[in-house]
Amino acid sequence: MIKKKQLESFLQQVPDFDGKPNWNLEQHMTPPSFASEIIQLILNEESLENLVCADFGCGTGMLTAGLLCCNVAHVFAYEFDENVAQDTLQTLQEMHDGAFDLIITNIKHHKFPSQKVDLILMNPPFGTKEANIDTVFLLQAFQHANGNVYSIHKSSTRQYLEKLAIENKRTFKVLKEFEFPLPKKFSKYHKKDLAFTQVDFIKFGYVKQQEEKQDIQLN
Hints:
Mean pLDDT: 86
Oligomer: single chain
Helix content: 25-40%
Number of strands: 7
Largest sheet: 7 strands, mixed
Shape: globular
CATH superfamily: Vaccinia Virus protein VP39
CATH topology: Rossmann fold
Radius of gyration: 18 Å
């Protein structure tokens, strides 16, 4: 298993958004230290080896790069911003030779293939600009994953998200609460050089549905 410091050092190669991030899309890069820690939290829960994974709203590719370091079989990375996606594609190709696809699409309207992935890791928009967009990402993830969904959300939405998980036959576990940094470039959020918002890193566990029919053995 890759060590946290090794992973963090590797992820420091991922560049931030080029130019001014799109505030409407809530584009803020997941810091390398944060990404490496949440991946370690996942590895404490389960092995990632040979899993087919997805990253919704991959942005700079930080989480996708982290997954590729964990011997996953494949990562499907989804991004809405075409310019960002092109930069991320180049970054990932230069950083790692692991198998991945980068799909430019709007998660809200994307029609996923019938074959589902084993695990989804994502840092979706918090819903500050577009209300309930975090819920949209989660519902799409629940439909597309035949396994656990790991996601970052504002701590203030914890009670709502736990109810959403139950409604969608998912378990709910806050693996850790963090202070997520938001740089000054998000001037509409705050005026400080660096401010923080409380976030939860959540595991939405997959519950296998028992088959209604059982095999009947004849004696």
